[in-house]
Amino acid sequence: MxxxxxxxxxxxxxxxxxxxGDFKDATTWRSTASWQLPAAIRLHGSFGTGxxxxxxxxxxxxxxxxxxxxxxxxxxxxxxxxxxxxxxxLDEKLxxxxxxxxxxLRDEIxxxxxxxxxxxxxxxxxxxxxxxxxxxxxxxxxxxxxxxFGSYTWLDAEEPDQSREVRRARHQASxxxxxxxxxxxxxxxxSAQYNGDQDDLDFSVFPAQRVVLDDxxxxxxxxxxxxxxxxxxxxxxxxxxxxxxxxxxxxxxxGLGAFAGIRAAF
Length: 266
Fold this sequence. Notes:
Elements: E1 2-6, E2 9-18, E3 26-37, E4 41-52, H1 56-60, E5 62-63, E6 67-68, E7 76-89, E8 94-106, E9 109-114, E10 119-124, E11 128-143, E12 146-158, E13 171-181, E14 186-195, E15 198-202, E16 209-213, E17 216-228, E18 231-238, E19 257-264
Antiparallel strand pairs: 1-2, 2-3, 3-4, 4-7, 5-6, 7-8, 8-11, 9-10, 11-12, 12-13, 13-14, 14-17, 15-16, 17-18, 18-19
Main location: membrane
GO molecular function: siderophore uptake transmembrane transporter activity
Pfam families: TonB_dep_Rec_b-barrel
């Protein structure tokens, strides 16, 4: 549902009700607001709630000698809000946005380790975890065929005991540029993503100890060329710098990858 309350002022409201055979039925909602002001300034914000059910693997997964599921899990429950300011220049060719956000998660599903059976499992965490931070973004289009986008996020994520939440990098940033050529029939894109260091838990010892996973930069190169209407030739390099990194302790991630193909739309 959308409402135009005042010239330049808009509200939206969405409500969702889920009928669930395994858990309690859930009603969630989200509301947004946008206010266009003079001098190409726009205020925006949102508030909402959400529910996430445990996965099948969380409840029933089993790896002999490693992991056992937990049938008694409850859904995670979240609520959050954000408030931001957007400013544009040069007929919206240069757009800057600053957003402050905060969210709370209850009954978070977390990994646990049983020193008696030497099995890992999952359980609902008692209390609530909080996430708050600031996101900056900048989009610049100096030419009809060139677009540059950059962003930075600072995140403060805390466990119920106010310790730093694991697997949540405090600093993240990205930078990308796209050049279109031959009347925008083809395009070249280069992007880089930075993920700051983050904590994780080492379950190979008991009790589990906190460790720090190193920061890393991922670069992606992509190309597209329209052969004819609805058919494109595409190619991309992922992790072009062949970085070795982990986002979960003990689980390596793919190195350099090259892909090419044909994409058709009908």
